[in-house]
Design a protein that fits this description.
globular; 2 helices; 6-stranded mixed sheet; single chain; alpha+beta
């Protein structure tokens, strides 16, 4: 059985998807772009600022579902420009300090709303 996870402390879905879905002790968090949940707008700023907001929003989704960053086992990071990888990685490392999850990172042609990155995660208890 699946449980839909939703919080006002992360951006509302901008399409036919859920912020996260929990099933069988696993949480699948949809890709998050740097949208301020209070305004519903993409934030201005460099990749570091955007990464921090995305991972903060993911943390709020995790918390709502009863998980935290230590429960994350896999992330996928999509970058509009692979040259932003080092700066994104530096911020990312502050959220996953011990036993970081498995990860894939890709450069993609475009992301929704002109975002510089999108990150999705899978967590387990």
């Amino acid at each position: 059985m699946k449980k839909i996870i939703s919080t006002e402390n992360a951006p509302k879905a901008i399409g036919p998807y859920s912020q996260a879905v929990e099933t069988n002790g696993m949480l699948f968090v949809s890709g998050q772009i740097p949208i301020d949940p209070k305004t519903g707008n993409l934030i201005d700023g460099d990749i570091s600022k955007q990464t921090e907001l995305v991972l903060t929003n993911i943390g709020n989704i995790l918390k709502t579902a009863g998980y935290d960053y230590e429960n994350v086992v896999k992330t996928t990071c999509l970058l509009a420009d692979i040259k932003d990888f080092a700066a994104m990685n530096a911020v990312y490392a502050t959220f996953f300090k011990v036993n970081p999850p498995a990860r894939a990172a890709f450069a993609v042609k475009d992301l929704p709303a002109g975002a510089k990155l999108e990150i999705e995660v899978i967590a387990t208890k």
